[in-house]
Amino acid sequence: MEKMTIVTHMREELVNVTSALNERIRERGWDNGAVVLWCPHTTGALTVNEAADPDVARDIVVGMRGLVPHRGDYRHAEGNSDAHIKTSLFGPGLTLIVDGGRLQLGTWQGVYFCEFDGPRTRSLWMQWLQG
């Protein structure tokens, strides 16, 4: 297993990690198989979505704020219940196909680390599954 560090700068943001993942795959010489990505944080998640237009990531963050507001009828003492709910909606893990030393994604797709309780320094765990 390998770990990647991600530094976030806002309370809520989607960080495109596609290039960093492809670079790590190239450095390791991983050619064909799959990579399992796991977020070990209860207020961070992973998703695949459009990466060509940065407004999409912004719209996802704004949309989630509307669905799950920061302040609400929550009991969790840390004041970040919304972040836990948003993380549960997205999920902590992804399994992605690697072929020819690159992630196999659709034309417009990218991989995002979803920060819902930042800014923080986060970890992204990677496990290679050889094909």
* % residues in beta strands: 35-45%
Classified in CATH, the superfamily is YjbQ-like
Total helices: the number is 3
User: Which CATH C-level class is it?
Assistant: Mainly Beta
Spatial strand order of the main sheet: 1-8-3-5-6
Number of domains: 1
Biggest sheet descriptor: 5 strands, antiparallel
Count of distinct strands:
8
CATH architecture: Sandwich
The level of helicity is 25-40%
N- and C-termini, Cα separation = 16 Å
How large is the radius of gyration?
15 Å
So what's the overall shape? elongated
- Classify the fold: give the CATH topology: Jelly Rolls
Poorly predicted sequence stretches spanning 5 or more consecutive residues: none
Structural class: alpha+beta
Mean pLDDT: 97
- In sequence order, what are the helices and strands, one letter per element? EEHEEHHEEEE
What would you say about this model in short?
The protein is 27% helix and 37% strand.
Note down, in words, how this protein is organized:
This protein is an alpha+beta fold and 131 residues long. It has a single domain, classed as Sandwich (Jelly Rolls), CATH 2.60.120.460. 27% of the residues lie in helices and 37% in strands. It is built from 3 helices and 8 strands; from the N terminus they run E-E-H-E-E-H-H-E-E-E-E. The strands form 2 sheets. Strands 1-8-3-5-6 form a 5-stranded antiparallel β-sheet, with helices on one face. A 3-stranded antiparallel β-sheet has the order 2-7-4. The chain is elongated. The model has no long low-confidence stretch (mean pLDDT 97). It comes from Desulfobaculum xiamenense.
